[in-house]
Amino acid sequence: MIPPLPPLAALRAFAAVARAGSFARAATQLHVSTSAVSHQIRGLEAQLGTPLLTRARNGAGHSQTAPTAAGQTLLEAVEAALTMLAESCAGIRAEAGRPRARLVVCANGSVASLWLAPRLAAFAGLHPSVDWHMRAVEAGSPDLAAEGIDLAILRARTGQIPPGDSLLFEERMFPVASPAVAAEVARLGRSTALARLSLLEEEHSADSPDKDWRHWLAHLGEAVPAPRLIRFSGFNQAIGAALAGAGIALGRSPLLDAELAAGRLVRLFAPEALAGTWVFTLRLGPAAARDPHVRQLSDFLRTPSSG
């Protein structure tokens, strides 16, 4: 005989609080009051006979609500069970001819095409019950609820990550070129190559020196009075030109890790590198509270081996 289980609503509330790190944020995601969430968690802890969450304290102690050791064990089980339930329900809907769940993921153009696309395709292959849609969004902070976005990868200044977002990755910048151009650089030597070859640069603001070739030349200690600069409106275009052998571009890791690993691009002047001006964060939309696939994808994207 199966022992009595806690109410599903209480388990969903617990998972939402554990992931959001806040009773208030979890309540917003679940579209209920904070007191309702708190009541469900207290009932769940009473039924299981142990604390499941540490409570955040203002000014001291824990900076946010987090699972205890017992809570972490329960969280993993709850999320696995919710995923299985979602997959089963999706299969039943499919057999009944009803449409599958549709989830939308977004990032800016370069992150979407160079980093997110292969990872989303790999994850979608593991979760075929969902229709996944990827959207390129350049807005700094889109309204996820209004625009129907379930998970967003967004830019933020280092040390200025918005509340509720979580760090996904930081960038490292370094020069890259095609194998043929890299061989020409080796033949000419660094100073001559930087003076003679085209330097490919994306348009950028003055507060992003890591994307500026003049800043890089100073960093490398190279005096090039009139560098042959070619500017592009976006990172993808500059990298496309580099892949075609048009010159040397300023590349970014991890966006170009696949191109480097495949040998389509070569890193130049190692170990010279600069930290990127921006970091990239994950922000979850309202669907995270009702569809476990959103959390599953978030965890998958954080896994180094997902690429």
Automatic annotation (TrEMBL):
Keyword flag Transcription regulation: yes
PROSITE patterns assigned: HTH_LYSR
HTH lysR-type domain residues: 6-63
Keywords linked to the UniProt accession: DNA-binding, Transcription, Transcription regulation
Family matches, as Pfam families: HTH_1, LysR_substrate
GO molecular function: DNA-binding transcription factor activity; sequence-specific DNA binding
Entry superkingdom: Bacteria
GO BP terms, alphabetized: DNA-templated transcription
Family to which the UniProt record says this protein belongs: Belongs to the LysR transcriptional regulatory family.
Protein name (database record): HTH lysR-type domain-containing protein
Organism annotation: Teichococcus deserti
